[in-house]
Amino acid sequence: MTRYLEDFEVGQHIPLSSYLVPESEIVEFARQFDPQTFHTDPEHTTTQALGGLMASGWHTAAIFMRMIVDAYLADSAVLTSPGVDELRWLSPVRPGDVLSGDATVEEVRPSKSKPDRGLLMTRVRLHNQKGESVFSVKAMAFVLRRPIIESP
Amino acid sequence: MTRYLEDFEVGQHIPLSSYLVPESEIVEFARQFDPQTFHTDPEHTTTQALGGLMASGWHTAAIFMRMIVDAYLADSAVLTSPGVDELRWLSPVRPGDVLSGDATVEEVRPSKSKPDRGLLMTRVRLHNQKGESVFSVKAMAFVLRRPIIESP
Question: Could you tell me if B65 and B38 are in contact, meaning their C-beta atoms sit under 8 angstroms apart?
């Protein structure tokens, strides 16, 4: 059951599964990719002044990716992505937070130069267990169109 | 030696250190956050058709973060970041690639509402060992202004 470009339509909402963010994962990710005190050391005075440990924004972005892979990318005919726009961190993600969200299809545009594919544009929003928005992004992906079965 | 907002000026170039991307790191990151075949399985036919294993775009973004933390964020008075714009994946990042790059300061804007801080906007570009551009992003950060020492 592969989803092709034709299986997405503007206005469509795709719910995402929840993701629990453990403190150990926050610290491990940050030590490798974003070693700033408020991501790695819960006891540091700087961290305390900021209300406690918070996940690296790039960790939140990686979690967003996992959530959309599980929700629809894994069974879609995705080729690659040119990038994303308007990526925003709206509130801190804290240890033990459970993130949920949904993707809304904003544009489905068949390619003019490459008739086998098109561009899928989605707005994805994540919120925490308190309903606070934590992340928003406009994601793009190149997706194959449904193959035409030719008569022999 | 903390850098404050006043220590950045428009047009300033900040070189980044190099980062070697091992295959094991590509697979490990992707298994956790972006489990698509072409990021996790070098032997799969889909991967082969795409020229071999490539890093998740979010792995490249995390590496970009590590490179700018090491180059200047760690010793800057950074508060938080509202987000990024125009994030682009320009070519695949492959196992064994060595990424380098630089940040160019595009805007330094003191806040009108909060006189102790301002917005730092940088364009960061990464390229591989062959000189091919692989990643570009417009990054934003809130940075403290240099404290005013008041006479007693």
Answer: no
